[in-house]
Every structure is written in C-alpha cells, then in structure tokens.
Amino acid sequence: MQGAWIEVSEPFLFHKRLRNATLGISVGQQEGRIAAVTFIYKPSGYKGIDKPYVGTTDRGIGATSSKEDVIKKYGTLPSISTSDTEGGPTTCYLYALSGIDFVFDGEELVHITVFEPYTDMEH
Description:
mainly beta; 1 helix; eight-stranded antiparallel β-sheet; globular
C-alpha cells in the first residue's frame, strides 16, 4: 500500500516507531504520545523506508547540507558523538536544548530527528 504507515519495533529502541515508506518519515512513540519525528535522507538501512525525505528544516538544512552548514545555521555544538553502525561510523550533532539532532555518515546527512527539547542536560 503506497504511502501507508507501518509499525515496526527495533530491539535497540525503548519505544515503537511508525514509518511512512514513501515520505521518508519515522515517528517514535512513547507512553502513548509522539516522542520524536525522524526525517530520513539516506533510507538504506532503515526498515520500512523506501524513499528519502525531500524537505528541509526551517533553517534550510536538508539532504545536501554539510556539517559546516549545520553549525552555521544552528550555532556552536553543545554535543558531538560518534558511533559505529552496520553501515559504518556515524557522527551525531545534538542540539538537545533546541530539540534537534543531525546524523551524518561521513559527510552525508543521514537523518534529522526532532524531539521535545531537554530542559536540562541530565538526559
């Protein structure tokens, strides 16, 4: 069914996610409410996503944006982390107090996640 939402559960997540295969969007739920929305630009490696998201943030960050673009638009980084995934190492630029993060695979933007901003850095 084109454009349908599918429900998937992943072992490393604490909540279920709804994904729209044709829009490149994943919605995380926790305790019956939306906890995060992920906009996926590089869908390989995401179960249930066939096409990439084509939009941008309100500050113009999207599929062709670089790490430098993110810093220019969102400011100095409060947190950068790296992790090894099945597809290789990724870098996350986390703006926790603004409620947004940007994940890169090398220099390529993989996804953007928006969430309720942290009120403190205890998360």
